Amino acid sequence: MDLAAIAAQAESSELPDGDEERFAGYGVMGLPFSSGHVLAMRRFSASSIGPGYTSVWHRAPDGGWTFWQDQPAELGCGRYFSSGISGLTTTEILIDWPAPYELRVTIPEAGLRWSSTMVSTWRSRSFNRLGSALPDRAWRSARLLRLAGPIAGRALGVGPVGLTGEVPNGQRFVANPQRIWFVGTASAALDDADFGPPGPLRSPARLGDFGIPQRGVFAFGRAFFHRPP
What we know:
The protein is an alpha+beta fold and 229 residues long.
């Protein structure tokens, strides 16, 4: 089954059980460009705190982050990351799949146009086989994920990846990228500013303990957030 079809199925994702704030869906964990721009996207069709939502993250070469999302800040990524970013706008975000492995994201109000084509490699297939064998308790173990994140990052060749830790607003998180593909080719522009080709940054970008991969990674998965004490 191709990615477009899997993404369509993910629109009816079910939430995992638990007392945490929980989300399920898919997205681009992060995509760095050689120009210093970074993009990320979350399409969480299932949410324990409100309607499903889409959020797009952009880091400019100067290090400032801007978020766009199609639900109010308190019902999306802004709930967890707002203190670490420069701006957040609630606006329409369009997602479509013009080809089986091509994802296109458009934000008309912001002038953002972004297209990515995903590929499967032996690294991603190995990760997916291992992930499918893990029991649910392993995916939700912060202790295990704290150890597994750096190992997975090195094995995938994407640099340090934080699968658990603290976000800028103080909540603890657990990220579950359960099935992944790499971004093979991509293009993006914000108004008239073309981002150029994808490529690793001099220093990996971070938001709290969440590290942006040094190569584009697309994932289906879940996220859990614990309210700060």
